[in-house]
Amino acid sequence: MLMPSIFGESLLDRFFDEPFGGFYGSTEMMKTDIKDTDNGYELTMNVPGVKKEDVKAELKDGYLTVNVSSNSGRDEKDENGKYIRRERYSGSCSRSFYVGDAVTQEDIKAKFEDGTLKLTIPKKEAKPAVEEKKYISIEG
Prior knowledge:
Largest sheet: 4 strands, antiparallel
Strand content: over 45%
Radius of gyration: 24 Å
Helix content: under 10%
Mean pLDDT: 77
Low-confidence stretches: 1-8, 10-16, 21-26
Number of strands: 9
């Protein structure tokens, strides 16, 4: 299928190459590997083309949620300062994993390097709630 092109490139080629540009068709964004170790889990998530400050991890109600957002723009002008091309994109995506109610924020270790987020989550058994015995007073 022929696509419209401008300046020798397909308009959609760059759209699908950018982070979040092809959000619905992207197969590379937030691919996650989870490794079960003796002490816990190692979670490795690919977030290519994203800066560390655009990645947020939150633990709430036993769910670890990783949010990634990106806002970027690219301006190209000719020698007279007129726009030849102006592109902008923004987007966000997130993934959630149940890690259990016993895991705290301090237990999770995170490291971001070269477009890869690595999280170490310890295995913790949920402490069973101690059933409190309540007696009914009996008169007589």
